[in-house]
Design goal:
homodimer; alpha/beta; Rossmann fold; 6-phosphogluconate dehydrogenase C-terminal fold; six-stranded parallel beta sheet; tyrosine biosynthesis (chains A, B); oxidoreductase (chains A, B); EC 1.3.1.12 (chains A, B); prephenate dehydrogenase (chains A, B)
């Protein structure tokens, strides 16, 4: 072996997602050096004092001249801030540097790259780690966050195989399983399995807090309610950005859900026992199959 | 002390709720004997072999003559089966025996008792333990299920203070905190904090399984989705019964939720950032306050 997988790993935006990948690569010796970029000097200082990065700067320009082949820039800023980062990259970063990102919506990143570069550059491999937490910020950074988690890459026709291989190896180095699909399928799948549940959780908590008209309502809620609404404690700004960035897919899945729920409402109103039992039973079956699949996947990982 | 709190504890319906209370009282020495009643002989045999009850019968009639003051009958059958049990009680059980139940909806039990007895008898204290699991059946019975959980009793004007005191002491003996409220408030509160989330979880899983049109959709869902939909693995028959029994309150809270979600949908469609951030932020705040209250309650319990 000729040394670590990655030479310099540069993380732009040192929050939970970026900080966890940085400290994960560092602890596993998968990169020679970790450089953090954050607009606020306090975040830079925090990232250094928490041992998440080796050096930190408030602008990518300060390290641009030292980056080349074998280095990776990971864009981990809120979705709607990606365009500004890409503009800076377009101006100062060498096309030999590998670029990737962790944004929850891929269509909006593709559009941002097209608006800045004309087309998505071959060096830029769009990606999304399916991991997270309702916690946020560099203090929540966890070197094992991605272990046994999936990362979806959405390479394009002109993506460079070398850069794709480098990004794949980077995620595998922190224990993630790497999958590939189209930008469109990614945004539809995540719209339904992640973005829709978040909107529902926010709306349910808001309904109880604002609309029910019983100020004691939460006093009698139990642990099941806490688990069900955990994702409503997620960062509002991040989720606002996702709603804007994946608007079409989210609206489409919200419409399907509101239709389904309205049909269920009619079955309750008309005391249609047969239909209620049919829906509850097939939902339970689908959900039990899903958890069995997750369990088998975990066993498979322990055996391999 | 003159011996255990309860003489004979009779549990009608030996599933998770009834079995857990039976084995909890037994293990704590809070009753002299536990008798199980189940219509199916196999359930009787299972309850005995799992050590959940001392004796078991397929009909309450077989033990009626031996029950009197100091004994408790706990009705733990599915909500819509309560009427049949009450009819048997009305025919063969002494008015000195304490009666209580664990059904999730109290208005329907009150109506059932009124239809059988004319009015709810003074010996019958309606109750509901706010505890459960997506598992069910006697094999899931857990003697510590109710520890640190709340039990809501809904006594009526003519309820007997002695029977109320006996039921309160019974729940405290297994570590539960006993609260009191009206039947109407109970059903509204539970409709919003428990029944509504269950309908939503069933409907969300069903939307993904039936309506999205992507057979691989669950392959890419993550642990967050598993936690969010855990309650969709609950027993379909039990939840069908609850939908029937608490129909009015559930429909009312579904309407409030569908309205709230539809307003959120409009904010997403019109990219109303201010409104999205306002809703997400106040939902996060309400949910964070709620979990802080649960945490303080847990600390308070450890200190006392």
């Amino acid at each position: 072996m000729s040394g670590p997988l990655i030479n310099k790993f540069v993380v732009v935006g040192i929050g939970l997602i970026g900080g966890s990948l940085a400290t994960g690569l560092k602890q596993r010796g998968a990169c020679r050096e970790v450089i953090g970029i954050s607009r606020t000097p306090q975040s830079c200082a925090d990232a250094i004092s928490h041992g998440v990065v080796d050096r930190a700067y408030t602008s990518l320009r300060e390290v641009a001249s030292e980056l080349g082949k074998g280095d990776i820039i990971f864009i981990a800023v809120p979705t709607l801030a990606v365009t500004a980062v890409l503009k800076e990259i377009q101006e100062v970063i060498d096309p030999a540097v590998t670029l990737t990102d962790g944004a929850s919506v891929k269509g909006s990143v593709q559009k941002a790259a097209e608006s800045v570069f004309g087309k998505v550059p071959a060096q830029f491999i769009l990606g999304h780690p399916i991991a997270g937490s309702e916690k946020s910020g560099v203090t929540a950074a966890n070197p094992n966050l991605y272990e046994h988690h999936r990362v979806i890459l959405t390479p394009l026709e002109n993506s460079s195989p070398e850069h794709l291989q480098q990004v794949t190896a980077m995620w595998q180095a922190v224990g993630a399983e790497v999958l590939s699909m189209s930008v469109e399928e990614h945004d539809q799948v995540l719209g339904a399995t992640s973005h829709l549940p978040h909107v529902i959780a926010y709306s349910l908590v808001d309904t109880l807090a604002q609309d029910i008209g019983n100020p004691n309502i939460f006093r009698y809620a139990a642990g099941g309610f806490r688990d069900f609404t955990r994702i409503a404690s997620s960062d509002p700004v991040m989720w606002h950005d996702i709603m804007r960035a994946n608007k079409a897919a989210i609206l489409a899945s919200m419409d399907l859900f509101i239709d389904n729920l309205s049909r269920l409402r009619a079955s309750i109103e008309h005391e249609d026992s047969e239909q209620l039992l049919r829906v509850f039973s097939r939902a339970k079956e689908a959900r039990d199959d899903f958890t069995q699949m997750l369990a088998q996947r975990a066993v498979h990982k322990r055996l391999n």
